[in-house]
Design brief:
By secondary structure, the protein is mostly helical. 64% of the residues lie in helices and 0% in strands. InterPro entries: O-mannosyl-transferase_TMTC, TPR-like_helical_dom_sf.
């Protein structure tokens, strides 16, 4: 360690040189002096002083930011996903946007979105309260209707903004380590495992959650850097961030306040109250950090884990002690308590009631949640290092359950123990890799907890934030291995980091190539589902999804055949023989194609039920094939009843049975079958009050016949 420089002052008296010994030369005679004895007064105890309070460690030194890394990260994030702009809705987009009646209302649906669960219209109560992304979808519906191109552009823009914020935040943490901060951000932005989040519109809840967590951490760091209470009294360079975040908070305050209190204070009074609260918070960096956390919660309630990142950031990078770091959490804990109070009031639950479902919650039924969690840890780590292959669905039985005799389960267990030990050592020494492991644990907690507590399945989206923890460890390791510091012959910075930069150019280049390639799989459902088939043939969901796409094609073929027949029959005065022959040829061709697509669908559905014999939705799709594509009414009835046996809360099965019985009842003038139709329509509304098709069909039947049957004996139900 270099010695500290002594302060300037008067010259010190030179120390006397030692006398020469005879061996070194002649000794000069020295005059004898009497020895002097110094008598000191007795020591007196010093008067006790009052204990002084410890000096505040705030504000910390202000750290300046080079702007090229954030801009480059934003640009890379935007360019990587530009090939998603022409994509359609895929996977959960249909349920979150197309089938969400409140989203379809635009602005008018926002108050309802703040009062309902995320999957309200899917008849499941998972306890998910994530209105912010749904509100953005409603705004898009208001201005652009069903235009997925705009939604994909917005997702890409938000991801680019995330890169910009991360680029600034990482430089704040890693003072004067611009290259290291940039490379960590680059790994995060380029990583292909993010495609599920960005390329799938529904993934906006995850993008917004992480973006607001990053803004919260950045705003709080700004709070640590300043002694001013009001952020706008600081330097002008803080105004863009403070102003834009404050403006968003105030607008959000109006929207949320007017929506939440429309039935109590009224929309206007509620909006004014929301503006006052958010406007007050927006005057300081601490307030903006609290507002950002609230918006992160509204995006995804699993943002609660970010509370651990606030003290960790201070301990590792601001060099505050543990107590100072922890005590700073109190305003954020208040925000968390208020949010969960709001959630309880709005949807009536904090946890929901996950369904008993082999497809999505198999490990709960098998009672192997704990062992499977350890096994999945290894899968997550592997995908962080080598993100191939990537699959949109890992339902039963893509990854077999973990158990006591499974090698991968034990490997995951000992890996977890090892990571915990390393995290503790990294915490004590405040190392960069220690922070990376800590970040990984914190951000992976919701994903691993989904398996541990609910027995849920593996999902790539759970690693979205955890990638940054991996990036910290990776870049630290490469720096240690490839960067050589030399005090004797110091080299320019770029020369010293050339090996790291060269290797990372290759790694991020491969990551980027994989990202762009993977984006193409998310073009639409047909491409996405078939892309998973080679890598997840044992997924009952993938098999069903592929089958449903063939069903869609079969329906189009049938519709085309019907259209040709209608056009031919409409020819006046009547079609010629030649016209009839040409029309019949086209009709036969389309029906043959429909039958072929129906058979392919049934093949995949049979494979799906082989994997999971009680898969009600697969039986429903089978019934639909026989009802709409290769008509066989008896088979359709049989498989709809199989659906109800396997999944008795699946409303569409009741509704479609009602349609079949209503059609037969009118055709045969059979009142009993019409009563059966009414009964099944009523059952669809009982199992799912939000199911609109059953409600509409019941209302129409009641209006035309006056029949309303809510109960029938089993003998009648089984007879038909």
């Amino acid at each position: 360690m270099a010695k500290k420089k002594q302060p300037a002052g008067p010259p010190r008296p030179a120390a006397p040189k030692p006398a020469l010994t005879p061996a070194n030369g002649p000794v000069r005679p020295v005059a004898n002096r009497p020895a002097e004895t110094t008598v000191r007064p007795p020591a007196r105890p010093a008067p006790a002083r009052a204990a002084e309070p410890p000096a505040s460690d705030l504000p910390i030194d202000r750290r300046y930011v080079a702007w090229w890394p954030p801009v480059v990260l934003a640009l890379v994030g935007f360019l990587l996903y530009i090939n998603t702009f022409g994509h359609r809705y895929a996977l959960d987009d249909i349920a979150a946007i197309g089938q969400n009646l409140f989203v379809k209302k635009g602005f008018a649906g926002i108050p309802d979105l703040l009062r309902t669960e995320f999957w309200h219209f899917s008849n499941i109560s998972l306890g998910y309260y994530r209105p912010l992304s749904l509100i953005t979808f409603a705004i898009e519906q208001e201005y652009f209707k069903d235009n997925p191109n705009i939604s994909h552009m917005i997702n890409t823009g938000l991801y680019a903004l995330t890169g910009l914020v991360l680029g600034v935040l990482l430089q704040k943490w890693l003072n004067k380590q611009v290259i290291i901060a940039f490379l960590i951000g680059l790994v995060f932005i380029a990583h292909p495992i993010h495609t599920e989040i960005v390329a799938n519109i529904k993934g906006r809840d995850e993008i917004l959650s992480f973006l607001f967590i990053a803004l919260m951490l950045l705003s709080y760091w700004k709070h640590l850097e300043t002694s001013e209470m009001l952020w706008f009294k600081g330097p002008m360079s803080d105004w863009p961030l403070g102003g834009l975040l404050g403006l968003f908070s105030v607008v959000g305050g109006w929207v949320i306040g007017s929506s939440l209190m429309v039935n109590s204070l009224g929309a206007t009074a509620g909006g004014v109250l929301g503006v006052l609260i958010m406007g007050t918070l927006s005057t300081s960096w601490l307030g903006l950090a609290c507002a950002s956390l609230y918006f992160a919660f509204l995006s995804k309630e699993s943002s609660i884990v970010s509370l651990a990142l606030i003290p960790a950031m201070q301990y590792w990078f601001a060099r505050r002690n543990v107590w100072q770091s922890l005590i700073s959490l109190w305003p954020f804990l208040i925000v968390a308590a208020l949010f969960f109070y709001q959630k309880q009031k709005m949807i009536g639950t904090l946890s929901g009631t996950p369904p008993v479902d082999w497809a999505n919650y198999p490990y709960k039924i098998l009672q192997t949640e704990k062992s499977t969690t350890f096994k999945f840890l290894m899968y997550y780590i592997r995908l962080l290092i080598l993100p191939h292959p990537l699959v949109y669905d890992y339902s039963f039985n893509v990854i077999p359950s973990g158990d006591k005799g499974d090698v991968l389960t034990w490997t995951g267990f000992f890996t977890l123990i090892g990571l915990i030990v390393l995290a503790w050592k990294g915490f004590v020494k405040r190392t960069l890799w220690g922070f990376g492991i800590f970040w990984f644990f914190v951000t992976m907690a919701p994903g691993l907890g989904f398996i541990w507590f609910r027995g849920g399945i593996f999902a790539e989206r759970f690693t979205y934030a955890a990638v940054m923890g991996f990036a910290f460890v990776l870049i630290w390791a490469l720096q240690k291995l490839l960067v050589r510091e030399s005090a004797e012959s110091p080299k320019p910075l770029l020369v010293r980091y050339a090996p790291v930069l060269g290797l990372m150019a290759v790694v991020t280049g491969l990551y980027s190539f994989k990202t762009v390639e993977r984006n193409r799989d998310w073009e639409n459902n047909f491409v996405l589902f078939n892309s998973a088939l080679p890598y997840a043939p044992n997924s009952c969901q993938v098999q069903r999804h592929v089958a449903n796409e063939w069903i869609e094609k079969g329906l189009k073929d049938r519709a085309k055949a019907d259209s040709i027949a209608n056009v031919t029959n409409a020819i006046k005065p009547k079609p010629s023989t030649d016209q009839i022959k040409k029309a019949q040829t086209l009709i036969d061709t389309n029906i043959a194609r429909a039958n072929k697509h129906g058979r392919w669908a049934l093949d995949h559905l049979q494979e799906s039920t082989r994997i999971y014999p009680n898969f009600g939705e697969a039986y429903f799709s089978m019934a639909y094939v026989f009802q709409k594509i290769t008509p066989n009414v008896d088979s359709a009835k049989y498989y709809y009843k199989q659906t109800i046996r396997a999944a008795n809360a699946y409303a569409p099965a009741y509704n479609n049975l009602g349609v079949i019985y209503q059609t037969e009842g009118f055709a045969e003038n059979n009142r009993r079958k019409i009563e059966l139709a009414s009964y099944y329509y009523n059952r669809s509304m009982v199992v799912n009050p939000a199911y609109q098709d059953g409600r509409n069909n019941h209302a129409n039947l009641l209006k035309s016949t006056g029949i309303n049957v809510t109960a029938l004996p089993d003998s009648i139900i089984n007879k038909y």
